[in-house]
C-alpha cells in the first residue's frame, strides 16, 4: 500500500513538474553527457569519491563508458561502497591517493567537493595526479541555492530520515557536507590558484522526486526553477558542472 501511494505521489509530481518547469531534467544526466565527451580509448581516468556507481542507476551506458577508456580507477574512503561498485574493477580505499604524478588524463568528482574540508589542497593534489592538459570534471551542489541553506538548518537525524525517504539511501551512505568551495566564484578561484584554467562552468537546476517532501511548497520550488532560467540568475541554480584543464 505504501509503495502504491509513493508511486501515485511520484506520478503527481512528474505531472506538476511538466506543467510548471517544462524541460527540467536531472543534473546527473547532464553530468553524464559532459563526461561522455571527455572519455576515449586513450583516457586514463580516476573517479574520486566513486562510491558504488559512476552514474545514478537509471542512467544508461555506465559500463560501456568505463570499457571505452584505456584505464579507469575508482577511489573512495568507504570500503562498503567500493565493494558494491559493479563497473570499475580497479578500486582504491583511500582519502589521500598514493599514486604517481601525471598518472591520469581525466579526473572526475561527482558530488564530492561539498564534502572536502580543504578544497585548495584537494585541487593541488588533483593537479599533481593529472598530466599536462588533463581535465578535471566536477559536479557539485551550489551553496547559493536555497536547498543548501535549508539543509544546514535541519537536524542531522531528521536529514538522514528525509534522505532515506527521498532517495532510499541508508544512513551509512550519507556523509557530512561543508560546502567550502561550492559557489561558481569560489570554485573557479580555487581551481585557478591550484594551476587550472576554467574550460566550462555550467549551472543547472535538477529534476528530482525528492521535492515531494516539500509538500505544497513544491509549487513554489518549481516556480523558482522556472524563474532561475533567466540568464542573469544562473548563479542561483542548484547544481554546478565544471570542467577545468591543467596547465
The gist of it:
The protein is an alpha/beta fold and 247 residues long.
Which helices and strands occur, and which strands form pairs?
Blueprint: H1 2-20, H2 27-36, E1 44-48, H3 62-68, E2 71-76, H4 79-83, E3 90-93, E4 104-110, H5 119-129, E5 130-141, H6 146-153, H7 156-167, H8 184-193, E6 196-204, H9 218-227, E7 239-246
Parallel strand pairs: 1-2, 1-4, 2-3, 4-5
Antiparallel strand pairs: 5-7, 6-7
Would you kindly provide a written description of the structure presented here, covering whatever features stand out?
It is a single chain. This protein is α/β, with parallel strands linked by helices and 247 residues long. It is 37% helix and 21% strand. The protein contains nine helices and seven strands, in the order ααβαβαββαβαααβαβ. It has a seven-stranded mixed β-sheet, with helices on both faces. β2 (71-76), α4 and β3 form a beta-alpha-beta unit. The longest helix has 19 residues, at 2-20. It starts with a helix and ends with a strand. Residues 158-166 have low confidence and may be disordered.
Keywords for this entry:
247 residues; alpha/beta; seven-stranded mixed β-sheet; 7 strands; 21% strand
| Average predicted local confidence, pLDDT | 90
Strand order, sheet with most strands: 3-2-1-4-5-7-6
Structural class: alpha/beta
Could you list the spans in which at least 5 consecutive residues all have pLDDT below 50? 158-166
Approximately what portion of the residues adopt beta-strand conformation?
15-25%
Overall 3D shape: globular
Strand tally: 7
Topology as a string of helices (H) and strands (E): HHEHEHEEHEHHHEHE
Radius of gyration from the alpha-carbon trace, in angstroms: 18 Å
Major beta sheet, specifics? 7 strands, mixed
| Helix percent band | 25-40%
How far apart, in Å, are the first and last alpha carbons?
Answer: 57 Å
Amino acid at each position: 500500500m505504501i509503495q502504491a501511494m509513493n508511486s501515485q505521489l511520484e506520478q503527481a509530481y512528474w505531472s506538476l513538474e511538466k506543467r510548471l518547469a517544462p524541460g527540467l531534467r536531472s543534473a546527473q544526466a547532464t553530468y553524464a553527457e559532459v563526461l561522455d565527451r571527455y572519455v576515449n580509448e586513450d583516457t586514463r581516468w580516476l573517479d574520486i569519491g566513486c562510491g558504488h556507481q559512476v552514474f545514478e542507476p537509471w542512467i544508461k551506458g555506465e559500463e560501456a563508458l568505463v570499457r571505452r577508456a584505456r584505464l579507469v580507477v575508482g577511489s573512495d574512503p568507504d570500503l562498503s561502497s567500493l565493494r558494491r561498485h559493479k563497473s570499475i574493477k580497479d578500486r582504491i580505499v583511500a582519502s589521500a591517493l598514493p599514486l604517481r604524478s601525471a598518472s591520469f588524463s581525466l579526473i572526475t568528482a561527482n558530488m564530492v567537493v561539498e564534502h572536502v574540508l580543504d578544497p585548495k589542497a584537494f585541487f593541488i593534489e588533483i593537479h599533481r595526479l593529472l598530466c599536462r592538459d588533463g581535465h578535471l570534471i566536477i559536479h557539485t551542489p551550489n551553496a547559493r541555492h536555497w536547498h543548501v541553506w535549508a539543509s544546514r538548518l535541519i537536524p542531522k537525524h531528521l536529514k538522514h530520515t528525509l534522505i532515506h525517504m527521498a532517495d532510499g539511501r541508508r544512513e551509512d551512505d550519507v556523509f557530512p557536507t561543508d560546502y567550502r568551495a561550492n559557489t561558481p566564484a569560489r570554485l573557479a578561484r580555487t581551481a585557478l590558484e591550484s594551476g587550472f584554467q576554467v574550460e566550462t562552468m555550467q549551472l543547472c537546476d535538477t529534476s528530482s522526486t525528492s521535492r515531494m517532501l516539500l509538500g505544497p511548497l513544491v509549487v513554489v520550488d518549481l516556480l523558482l526553477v522556472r524563474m532561475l532560467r533567466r540568464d542573469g540568475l544562473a548563479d542561483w541554480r542548484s547544481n554546478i558542472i565544471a570542467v577545468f584543464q591543467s596547465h
